[in-house]
Amino acid sequence: MFPATVPAALAEPLRLGVFPYISPSQMVEQLSPLQQRLAEAMDREVEMVSAPDFMNFVERTTRGDYDLVITAPHMGRLAQQRDGWQLVVMSGQQTATVILVRRDSRIDQLEDLRGRKMAVGNWRSVTYLLATQALAAQGLTLGVDVAVVETATFSNVVTALLHGAVEVGATPTLLWDQWAYVNEEQRLQLRELFRAPPPNPHSFLIMAPPTMTSAEVQRLRQSLLTFGNTPVGAEFFRHSRFHSFLPPDEEAMALSDPFIHVLVPDAP
Predict the structure, then answer these.
(1) Lowest CB count within 10 Å: 33, 61, 77, 125, which one?
(2) Furthest-apart CA pair in the chain: how many Å?
(3) By C-alpha distance, which of 249, 198, 192 is closest to 95?
């Protein structure tokens, strides 16, 4: 747990649950300014916690282990519909999938992927599910017509491609678009076969539990919507790539509806 202290806060700290999309050290580095902003808005100390994996995070959210969450779009939609969690703000950044091949590959279109091996990240991620949709539109079933090689992280998808372990890989545009800053030489060795067109679900949602009053939610929302107007907030959005915070949008939330089933164990 990583405390951000507000001197005026006398109550018990609020637990900010962050879905496990980055390592704990990256979480501290990237999200500490947001953690502090939340603490100031709520006049409470805020401590950041996470979970070992996606499903564990979903279960903890359902149990009410967190007082606030930064969550993925389909996780947030499930929490909203099933458990009454309230959407505070959405990130301006949207989740999208890019399907990559090596630059010298003879694969030129999605139909050419039949019988190939594709590296993917977590199969419960929106990135994976958008790749599944793209292939299905071409009559291909991921895991049947196209073999799946699941990697530990989305960065490992790129690595698997570069090392020739697979012929194709699906990873978030958020990661791929920044790869030039990670390793420009590596980026030039790959090319895009497909990029999911907008609109796509917003990458990050900040949500409050059903027990939080409407006045508290509104105060928190107003603080976050104006965060980008501050030097700290502008730097946060640049570094974290959240892009901005936007008010609730039901149409945008509904974009995640086709993906909720992977988070419900008993769903078909």
Answers:
(1) 33
(2) 63
(3) 198
- What stretch of H or E contains 250? helix 250-254
Q: How would residue 241 be classed by pLDDT, with cut points 50, 70 and 90? A: confident
Alpha carbons 220 and 46: distance in angstroms, whole number: 13
Q: What is the C-alpha separation between 118 and 189, in angstroms, rounded? A: 17
Distances (CA, A) of 80 to 67, 168, 191, 210: 14, 35, 37, 9
Tokens standing for residue 86: 């309230």
Q: What is the pTM of this model?
A: 0.86
Residue 4 confidence (pLDDT)? 54
CB contact at 8 A, 201 and 256? yes
70-123: per-residue pLDDT in tens? Answer: 999 999 999 999 999 999 999 999 989 999 999 999 999 999 999 999 999 889
Residue 168 near residue 135, CB atoms below 8 Å = no
Alpha-carbon gap, residue 217 to 87, rounded angstroms: 9
Q: What are the C-alpha distances in Å from 254 to residues 63, 70, 125, 217, 251?
A: 23, 18, 16, 21, 5
Angle (nearest 5°) at CA 145 between 139 and 146: 110
Can you name the residues that pair with 18 across neighbouring β-strands?
A: 70
CA distance 87 to 100: 33
Angstrom CA distances, 189 to 131, 176, 184, 210, stand at 21, 13, 9, 48
For 79-135, the DSSP string reads HHHHH--EEEEEESSB--EEEEEETT-S--SGGGGTT-EEEES-TTSHHHHHHHHHH
Query: Which structure tokens are listed for 170?
Result: 């699906």
Distant-in-sequence, close-in-space partners of 215: CB < 8 Å, separation ≥ 6: none
